[in-house]
Amino acid sequence: MRLLTFALKNLGRRKIRTGLTIVGIAIAIAAAFVLLSVNEGAGEVLTGAKELGPDIEAKLKGTQVAYATDENYAEVLEQIEGVRKATPVIMWEYWHPEKPGFIILIGMIPSDSQEIYAEIDVEEGRRLNDSDNFKIELGYQAARLNGLSVGDSLEFGIENFEVVGVLEKTGSIVDIIGVMPLWSLQSSLPGAENKATGIWIWVEEGASTKEVMEAIEDNYPELSAMEGIAVLEYTEEFMKFGDAIRLIIMGVALLIGTLAAMNTVTMSTFERTREFGTIRSLGASKGYVFKLVLIESVMLCTIGGLFGCALGYAGSVAVERVILGVVGMDVVAATLKVLLISIAIAIVVGLIAGFYPARRVSKQQIVEALRYE
Amino acid sequence: MALIELRNVTKIYESGVTRVKALDNVSFDVEKGEFMSIMGPSGSGKTTLLNVIGCLDKPTSGEVKISDRDVTRMPPAVLDELRLRKIGFVFQMFNLIPTLTALENVELSLSLAGLSDSEQRDRAGKLLELVGLGTRLNHRPSQLSAGEKQRVAMARALANDPELVLADEPTGNLDTKIGSEIVDLMRGLNRKFNKTFIIVTHNEEVARATDRIIQLKDGRVVKEEGRKKPNSISSP
Q: For residue B231, is pLDDT > 80?
């Protein structure tokens, strides 16, 4: 008779109660699984976006206008020591009122885009080049959700942009971008001539990003230099807020799960008080009964956790489909890491839920336990 | 050397301002292989005495020696080990684990002593055959009669080959015929394997079946009847 077998048999004693507790824990762990998957996916998207973005974005200080920075700053900023590349970029967003998903439009000099993103291949068509005007290359999901393929036109304001290429699927923010020649986007937006949202800057290998940022602001006090893409800094802040909300929801779900498990294990030990007295009278140590109850609790929560992971996986697939349909970005990542963390959470819930009843049982006087009615 | 020596054992229960003297200066010896009973009316201190001898409870004062070792001074972990190896318990309500089969109930005691799975299965099976339950190994307590349950409890008490078996009202939940069969079984085990049996009972018939009767009243030994030399030999 192994301790694990004994513990498992004890769990089967009140099947309905055990079953309901397992369902409760499964729901809590499923919620944790989905939220962790979203966290993981959103984190991956942000990391991917950061990797694709520049080291520094410089833009005109104190302005709310989306394209207020003169594009000619790119040339002068490229002269600063440590700067490898500087190019003007306009960022805009495109919503089609009848289609799901939005496109992050990036107006960029096509040769710079090709140089910087040389590793991204096209699934269909070709990349943009400097002789293009009113042409666009689309990310995989941007094209799919808007029903566009090579040769189709994207209406933007009064202009039509011809799709020349669809980029391969990356699972990152690149999937929802649309890259246009800078000049095309400038002429499509009112007052955007020679303007940019910011100047994207890549530093030379070995150069200090911080020092380059300081040099930019020292030489051009009207500019502010931020690490990465400025808009991502705000996105990250917003995501932190989202993380906190998710953490609170997860905490509440887990607290309810823990209390359900604690209630079940405590009730079960109260009912079996005399049995524990008997086991102790047979020569079992305090540690043995402590372990027995703790193992029962961990088993209960682990079983619930495994069901919860299956449920959570199904839930995250559903959430992924919904988000993909709405924004076109794969922000849910039900990875092995998420699975392991969820199981670890279930085990920790089991340890917390089982600690009090296990301690109570191990501290009980044997004669009192034997007398218990 | 006696197997058990009790000297001036007193046990007082205190609850608020109430003091109850459950045992009052109890002294006697029990030799190895004895088959004896402790009798007395309800509240006379029989179960308290059994708990003290079985190292489940400590006396307020006095000395309790098992195999010449004073158990009142032993730390809890050593007492656990002593109960595991030297003492077997049989209870009035059988106290079997309801989720375990007869075989598993006996295996539980053996697992505590660290026997391997196959050793546990083998020995538990033999013990259940010895108490006449060879065909009921895989039955749960709910599928057994009261007499059969007490036989399983007996096999469990003998699992780790203890020198001493303490039985608290072992026939209290059985009818006269089955009760008498259980006493016969205990007597047989005492004779065959030289196990020491101390049976707490208020049933005079059961007490008369033993070789020695200690009568308790208000926590004191008021009468002692009969004494026989222990018999011998092998182990189950």
A: no
